[in-house]
Structures are given as structure tokens and as C-alpha cells.
Amino acid sequence: MNKIAVIGCGAAGMMAALAAAENGAQVTVFEKNEKPGKKIYITGKGRCNLTNACDTTDFFDNVVRNPRFLYSAVYGFDSTAVRDFFEEHGCRLKVERGERVFPVSDHSSDIIRTLYNAVKKAGVTVLFDTKVLSIEANRSRVSEITYTEKEGPIIRHEFDSVIVATGGMSYPSTGSTGDGYEFARNLGHSIAAPLPSLVPFEIREDWCRSLQGLSLKNVGLKLFQDKDDKNATGGGSKKKNKPVYDGFGEMLFTHFGVSGPLVLTASCYYDKEKTGRLLLDLKPALDEEQLDKRVLRDFEDAPNRQFKNSLGGLFPSKLIPVMVELSQIDPEKSVNSITRQERTAFVKLIKNVPMTIKGTRGFNEAIITRGGVSVKEVDPSTMESKLVSGLFFAGEVLDIDTVTGGFNLQVAWSTGHLAGESAANKEM
After folding, report:
1. Is pLDDT at 99 greater than 70 in this prediction?
2. Mean per-residue pLDDT for 79-101?
3. Can you give the C-alpha Rg of the chain in angstroms?
4. C-alpha dihedral sign at 414, 70, 55, 95
5. Inter-residue contact 279 to 222 (CB < 8 Å)
């Protein structure tokens, strides 16, 4: 019977422990928190968007980095398998807009309870308030781990395999503080620099902050990033690219900039080493010609109305003063005296409201971590290290990240299941 240590009692860790135990292994889970699934508890604003019900073939379109690495894991334990697992264990689920899957109760605690009960029923030993200090290897093979319980003496324990499921660095209050990166690095693995992802943007323009609390639905957003044009003469010239992200949905203005689902998804594609800017399309359902006719019609309905008082049909009231200011049209000007040139420029503004990105918020507000253990050094068919025999990785500790919608938790379930199964069936 293989003796397996799982470091981390989150989504990936619990699924790995369960899969390993069900395949005949003796499993011990080490968790430095006082209870399981602390990060699961806050996902989906406490409702837990546990997976996405899209076709498995479509799943990979939502993985931003290293989707091909996930083929074996996801096809081996896909969204249908995840949903079947929770339903069979008594946790009823529902599918909402965007194929997002939630527990019927809207309580993430039900997901944690269901999974943890299954883990305990499978005979897994779980040690809480226990911090793993190191993973030791002998001749490129895992040999033991060192750990301490509630800051007690250092304990050494031999294991045949170790599964690292420690998460990334987002929401460090849940215990995700980068421990897994250190374990991997100390055993020779390369780490792609961890960065906040699915995270709000900080914006330079002051008018953004004046809109704090305003939520916009059904808007378009494009992210542009400038890069050096190596072929340009004179050095240091910049070239504008096509948008690196072009999406549609909902966003929110905050005291520091912008947030909301549309913005969080855009952040997955943001490169902090390059200059970034956003263009907001307030009327994505209309092209410029259609929008111009709409604006002209509004102007003609009340030709003597001042410009600042003529936009109630186009924008929320809080947004009107900002749009007037950005348009550079005299707010007192009657709409019948606005020139065609001014109106055309105003239409272009509505379709392209510019915002300059100052940066992203930090790990405390990031839903996930971009970066992690290089997947080039991990076998995608088993999740085992190519460098150290008996060392496995699962979940957010790997250099894999996705957009919002339940995809990141699906990565955790799939990679955890494969890692646990592979570790249990590994020949010693």
C-alpha cells in the first residue's frame, strides 16, 4: 500500500486525497489552517461556482495559459464527472447563466462539507494546524517530509509520494502564501513568476473614481498593450497592437479604478511589463452609424435643450457629467447648435471611452494566481514531476490559469483527481 502525503486541504488537495484513497493508498493530508477548504468558502462570493457545464472541447478555450497540458486531466475527470460526484454524494447543483454551476443552496459550505465527508469516509487522515516545512528527496526520489503541529517540535515522516496542492498566492488570508513554490524550487523546479490574476485594474484618470459604485451591464471592453517595435528607426518608438482582449459583459467602477466580471477576465491577458489601456464601448449593440442616428434623433426631439441635459436616454445619470466633460462640448450649448463634427467625435467617444491602466490590485484581491510550477517539468498524463520521482502537483500551484466561470475550480478537481490516482497506482 502506497503511503501518500497531500499538502493542502483545498479543492485540489481533497480531490487528490480522495482519488488516492479510493485507489488503495494510505493517505495523510497536511493543512496549516484549522479547517478544510478556506478558499473554496469565499469563491463565487460565497456561493461557490464549482465548475462550468460547457462541452469539454470548449473548456480549453477558457484556459489562458497552457491549455494543452490539461488534456489528460480534464478528459479523465471532466465537468460531468464533477457534477455527478457532488450529486451522488447528496449535494444538489444548478446551472446558471454562462453554464456556471452552483450548489442549489447557494452555500459554498455545502461543497466543502460534501467533499470533506467523502474524504473522511474514504479513510484519509487529515491533520489541521499542521505546517509542512520541507519535502526531502533522496537520489531524485521523494523520501520524507518535515512538519510541525501547532508550532510544536519538528517531525519527520517517510512517504512514497507527496502531492503538492498548496494553491497559489491569491487571498493569502486563506493560507495561500506560496509555500508550494518553495517546495518545488528547493527540489529543482522552475517557477513562472507568480502574479495576481482575475484582479481589478487601477486607473490613472480621476473621473473613474468619481463613478465609484456605478455598475454597467452589456458593455464592451478592449484591452490594448503597447510594445516596442524592434523594426522602428530611432529606437524607443511604440507600435499599437490589436486588442489582446475584447469582451462583453458587466463591469463596476471603484475608488481605485474598475472591477467586475468583464474587467477580471481582461486582467488574465494583462502584461504588467507593457503599457496598458482600456477602451470602453458603452453601446456595443450599435455601430457608429446606427449610434449617430440614435444621438441625432435624441437631439432633434428637444433641439433647444442644453447638451448636458440631453443625455438621459443614453447613459445612467451618474455617468452623464463625465461624458460631457470627456466630449469637450460646451455643456450649456443647445443641441441644435452642435456641429456634425462635434457629434461624430461624441459618437466615437461613446464607442471608445479611454482609460489608462496604472496597474492591477494585489494578491489580496486577486481571485487566482498566474504563474507557478513550470508545466514543462511535470508529466501531463500523471501530474508527476519529471525531475523528482514520487513528487506530484495539483491545482493552482501549477502554471495554469483560466477566465472566470468555474474553470479554475475544474482545473483543481481534474488535476487533483489525476495526481491522486497516479500516486496511488505508482509502482514502488
Report:
1. yes
2. 97
3. 25
4. positive
5. yes
DSSP string, 378-422: B-TTT-BBSSSBTEEE-GGGBS-EE-SSSHHHHHHHHHHHHHHHH
- Contact in structure between 342 and 185 (CB atoms under 8 Å): no
Q: Where are the alpha helices (H) located in 107-260, listed in sequence order?
A: 108-121, 179-186, 206-210
- Report which secondary-structure segment, H or E, holds 257: strand 257-259
Which distant-in-sequence residues (6+ apart) come within 8 Å of 39 by Cβ?
A: 10, 11, 167, 171, 174, 175, 176
The stretch 225-238 carries a mean pLDDT of 50
Q: Can you say whether residue 406 is alpha, beta or left, with left for phi > 0 and alpha for psi between -120 and 50 degrees?
A: left
Residue 4 C-alpha cell reads as 501518500
Inter-residue contact 225 to 207 (CB < 8 Å)? no
Question: Residue 156 has what pLDDT?
Answer: 97
Give percent above pLDDT 70 in the chain.
Answer: 97
Using one digit for the tens of pLDDT, what is the confidence trace for 248-293? 999 999 999 999 999 999 999 999 999 999 999 999 999 999 999 9
**Cα–Cα separations (whole angstroms), residue 257 to 265, 278, 327, 379:** 15, 11, 20, 40
C-alpha to C-alpha distance for 76 and 86, rounded to whole angstroms: 17
For residue 239, pLDDT beyond 80: no
Answer yes or no: are the C-beta atoms of 285 and 231 closer than 8 Å.
no
Angle 340-351/288-301 helices, nearest 10 degrees? 120
| Entry pTM | 0.91
The angle at the Cα of 298, spanning 295 to 299, to the nearest 5 degrees, equals: 85
Average pLDDT, the chain: 94
Least confident of 30-44, 238-252, 257-271, 347-361: 238-252
More confident residue, 298 or 226: 298
Distance of CA 160 to the CA centre of its chain: 33
Domains and CATH numbers, the chain: 3-196+364-424 (3.50.50.60), 200-361 (no CATH)
User: Grid coordinates in use for 334?
Assistant: 443647445
| Distance linking the first and last C-alpha atoms of the chain | 10
The span from the CA of 14 to the CA of 114, in Å, is: 11
Per-residue pLDDT tens digits for 103-134: 999 999 999 999 999 999 999 999 999 999 99
